C-alpha cells in the first residue's frame, strides 16, 4: 500500500520542494552522490505514481502537466529533474499502452502498489542492444552491462533488453524488466562525471540473471527500427528535455538578475540581453511543440511523430546549451567559480546531447526516412 501524503501535486508544491532541492544541489554535485533526500520528498508526495491513471490507483496527472513539473524542478536541481524524467517516461509509455488497449495495466498497478521506481537502460541499448541471453527451461539467463542507468542507486526494476539468437527467427532483441534484488544483479558505483552528478546513473551488471519467459514484453528483429520506439521517443523526449529547459531558464534568470545589478554595464549589455531573450524564446517554443506532439499520450506510433520529436530534441539541445553559454557571457568571470550556480548549470546542460538520438544519428535516421518517402 502506498504511503504518500494525501496532498495535491500542484505547481506551488513543486516550487516548495524545489527550494529544498536547490539548497542540497551543490552538496550532491560536490560529492557525486545520488539525490536521495530529494527522491524521498518526491515519493512522500506521490510524484512517482502521479502519471498513473486514477482508475489504477495513481493520481492521473497529465503528461503535459508533468512535463511542467519536471521543468520547474530543473530550475532548482537538474539531477533531480532528469532522474525523475527517467522513471516518468517509462510510466508514460505504459500509460500510452493502457489508453490504447495494448496492456500496461499490470506494470502501472505494481508501480502504485509496490512504490516502484523504474530504471531505464534504453538509451544505450537502441536498435542493437547489448549483452547475451541463453535459453534455459522456462526462461533465459541474461548477462551483460548496462551503462548510464539513471537512478540505479535508488530504483527497483531495470527496464532493459538484450540480443538473443532465436533458432528460427534469427537475431532478435528481447525486452523485459529485472528487479535489482534478483540474484546476479550488481549496481556498480561508477558514476563519477562532469555533470548531472546527482543522478546516480551507475552501471548495472547482470551475471546470468534468470528472466522467466512470461517476463518478455517485446520481441523485435535486432538492428531494425520497431514502431515501439515511436512511442518511447514521443513520450520520453518532452519529459527529459523539460529538465534541461528548466536549467536554461535558471541560467536566464541569473543572467538577467546580475545584469540589472551591474553598476557599470558595458554598452553592449542590452544587446546581449536581447540575444539571450531570443534564444530563451526559441528553447521554450521548441519544448512546447514537443509536448504538443505527445498530445497527452494520445497519438499514433508513426515515424512522423518520432521524426518531429527527434528533430526538435536536437535543435533544443543546441539552444539550451546556447542559453547557458550566453548567460555566462553576460555574468562574466564570476560564473567560473564553483560557488556560482552557473558553473554547475554549465556542466549539467551538456548532458542533453547524449540522450537519443545524438545529433548525427538523428540526421542519419531522419534523412534515410526522407529518402524513402
The helix content is 40-55%
SS-based class? alpha+beta
CATH domain class name of the largest domain: Mainly Alpha
Overall average pLDDT: 96
Biggest sheet features: 4 strands, mixed
CATH-level-2 architecture of the largest domain: Up-down Bundle
Looking at this structure, what is the CATH superfamily of the largest domain? Butyryl-CoA Dehydrogenase, subunit A, domain 3
Q: Shape from CA axes?
A: globular
Number of strands: 8
Q: What's the N-to-C terminus distance?
A: 51 Å
CATH topology of the largest domain: Butyryl-CoA Dehydrogenase, subunit A, domain 3
Low-confidence segments? none
Count of DSSP H/I helices: 11
Portion in beta strands: 5-15%
What would your notes on this structure say?
Helix content is 51%, strand content 14%. It is globular. The protein has 11 helices and 8 strands. It has 3 domains: 11-116, Butyryl-Coa Dehydrogenase, subunit A, domain 1; 120-221, Butyryl-CoA Dehydrogenase, subunit A, domain 2 (Beta Barrel); 227-372, Butyryl-CoA Dehydrogenase, subunit A, domain 3. The chain has a 4-stranded mixed sheet with strand order 1-4-5-8. Strands 2-3-7-6 form a 4-stranded antiparallel sheet, with no helix packed on it. The protein has helices spanning 11-31, 36-44, 63-76, 78-99, 105-113, 122-125, 227-261, 269-294, 303-331, 341-349, 359-372, and strands spanning 118-120, 132-136, 139-146, 157-166, 170-179, 185-187, 204-212, 218-221.
Task: Provide keyphrases for this structure.
3 domains; Butyryl-CoA Dehydrogenase, subunit A, domain 3; Butyryl-CoA Dehydrogenase, subunit A, domain 2; globular; Butyryl-Coa Dehydrogenase, subunit A, domain 1; alpha+beta; 4-stranded mixed β-sheet; 51% helix
